Amino acid sequence: MNILVITREFPPYVAGGISYHLKYLYSKIEEIGHDVTILAGRPRAIEKQSSVEVPQTIDVEWVDYFSMSGYHLQYPTALAKKLRDFNIGEYDIALTHTEIPYSLGIPTIHKVHDAKHIERSFSRERMGSTSKMLDSALAKTRRWVTQRALDCADALIFNSDLTRSVWENQYDISVPSNTIYNGVDREIFYPREVEKEDFILFVGDSPRKGFPKVKSFAENSPYPVYVVGDVDDSQHLHSLGRLSQDELAQYYSSAVATIHPAKFEAFGNVILESLACGTPVVVSDRCGAAEIIDDSCGEVTTNLSAGIEAVRDLDSEGCLQTAKRYSWAEVANDTTSFLKRMRSCSK
């Protein structure tokens, strides 16, 4: 297939985790014989990250816009200008990773990575009054753009059933959909030759990811709690700051367990990363990645103490076997199979 990809960001102009997702996914899709062209947004305020390598075989055409703030309006507008002189008819199908509120004229699949309408309720807690006013003013435009994009799509891909359910509760969805879980790069995340230590690992520093619950748990935990994120050190919490992926893999490999008591997480890549390093997880059912967990590799619960005791003696092999089922090669195969089915239905 000749696939057109549309996204508000792409490496090396990285604004969020979606960039890494797209890099891994489309590298594998090209490897299995498909042609990929990416119309990628390039916000002026985002600096180039030269450390992020992108395969030279991927054809990227940049769509410049001002900033990620209000991208739901800026990027589709800039894209529309780009498409005026772009031969979209040469592509078999489009896969969008940003809501585009108009028809592209070819079969279009939209992939949903998050649930901004829920995530924004947490981020608003940290906003000042001016930012809150601006956010409220933009809220109606976000909803209109999103609903229009859903109406224009021929099918949807969600990264978890949890994500699908919260979108179905918020928007009118009348097209076919499929759940395809995220993948993990096992060339980075694999068991390191380090000693197991009696500490619990948490990756994140926000209320949405469950930091307040982790902080409360740490006060009476028999284990020290290490936090990957910008938090203050205390008697019970040890801040590791920001880590490279290689450093993170070493901490995953050393930990008794990784905990993720999220209040909402559309997927939660930390779950797969920990499993790929052989370390079990304790995760809430408000995290999409909880859907891939069974008692061989983790526990789905909000009771962190009980969850850790349930998983601390699990064999790492159960974790590794679960992670192997979610390679990026598998994600690429599942994605292209769905694209082919939807393309044939649209003929």
From TrEMBL:
Glycosyl transferase family domain sequence ranges: 235-295
Is Transferase given among the entry's keywords? yes
Q: Which UniProt keywords apply?
A: Transferase
Matching InterPro entries, A to Z? Glyco_trans_1, Glyco_trans_4-like_N, Glycosyltransferase_grp1
* Pfam hit, one: Glyco_transf_4
The molecular function terms of the Gene Ontology recorded here are: glycosyltransferase activity
Q: Which CDD domains match?
A: GT4_PimA-like
Organism's domain of life?
Archaea
Q: What positions does the domain Glycosyltransferase subfamily 4-like N-terminal occupy?
A: 16-187
What is the recorded name of this protein?
Glycosyltransferase family 4 protein
Q: Which organism is it from?
A: Halogeometricum borinquense
